[in-house]
Amino acid sequence: MMVEEPSIELLPDGAAGPRRFKIKAVDNEQRRSKVDALLKERYGWRGYKSVSLPTDSSVSKFTLAAIEDDLMIGSITVSLDGPDGLAVDDIFGPEAKKLRAQGRRLSEFVRLAVDPLVGTKRVLGALFHVAYIVAHRIRGYDTLLIEVNPRHVHYYQRMLGFKPLSEERTNRSVNAPAVLMALEFSYLKRQIGEFGGQPERMATERSLYPAAFSLKEEASIIERMLLKQSLLDERNRLVPRDSGLAPPSDFQASDLMS
Question: Is the pLDDT of residue 133 over 90?
Fold first, then answer.
């Protein structure tokens, strides 16, 4: 579940200019441990049940982290629809089934956490943008689903353009109320094209999109992702999958952006 905390709504915009943090894949035990600690702290203080990263390694489920000077300042997990479905199917199965019947390719962003002491809206925007790149630009999924606390539905409508798809229900994984919301990646793409890479506009454009990367930066990120993926594909071709040496998921290289 993706729980929107009041602290995230109150994050500062972040200074304009070059970003000091990097977005990286959580591809080793050290990073995984730091993300788990961040999730435990950010969800625990709100009284939610324990939240941790998924234990299965899969090309349809992976985690991104924002890191600055070895400090974990934010994370988000991307899940792509497949034979095992999505987490939203647990309580929003009818809504997800209806979207699939319409031919939608579904993905979901879950386990969002940002350290309110050092995080900014630019960190949040960068995490969303790289997650979008992987889910839509690289993997071709067209619809994003999230579960949020009912108190923060309007925040996601205003800041990103999500639309609510359900009434309030109880998410059993964290024992908290939730509303299902959806966003078409085509809309997100248009907003990034108009506002991305212009953090100075955050003072007047009250959405998260000025905190995203520019289209030029996005193209560079995609190029690096595809290059690293091609190297991994070549390694997988040369190393037998039953050897235990082949990486289990896409985009395992440490740096997704520089």
Answer: yes
For residue 30, with 0-12 CB atoms within 10 Å meaning exposed, 13-18 middle and 19 or more buried, which class applies? Answer: exposed
In this prediction, residue 217 carries a pLDDT of: 95
Alpha-carbon span 64 to 110, nearest angstrom: 11
Q: Are strands 143-148 and 163-164 parallel, antiparallel or unpaired?
A: unpaired
Give me 2's structure tokens.
């993706």
pLDDT exceeds cutoff 60 at 146: yes
Contact 82, 96 (CB under 8 A): no
- Backbone phi, then psi, for 45, in 5-degree steps? -65, -20
pLDDT at 247: 47
Separation in Å, CA 119 to CA 12, 110, 164? 8, 18, 27
Instruction: Choose from 12-16, 27-31, 150-154, 172-176 the range with maximum mean pLDDT.
Output: 150-154
For the chain, the average pLDDT equals 82
Write phi, then psi, for 207 (nearest 5 degrees): -135, 175
Helix axes 215-238, 185-195, angle to 10 degrees: 130
66 pLDDT higher than 60? yes
Q: Which secondary-structure segment (H or E) carries 101?
A: helix 89-101
Yes or no: say if 88 and 147 are a contact pair by the CB < 8 Å rule: yes
Measure the CA–CA gap between 255 and 119, rounded to whole angstroms: 19
**Relative orientation angle of helices 121-132 and 185-195, to the nearest 10 degrees:** 130
Residues 6+ apart with CB under 8 A from 204: none
DSSP annotation of 192: H
Three-state DSSP class for residue 158:
helix
> Which pTM value belongs to this model?
0.82
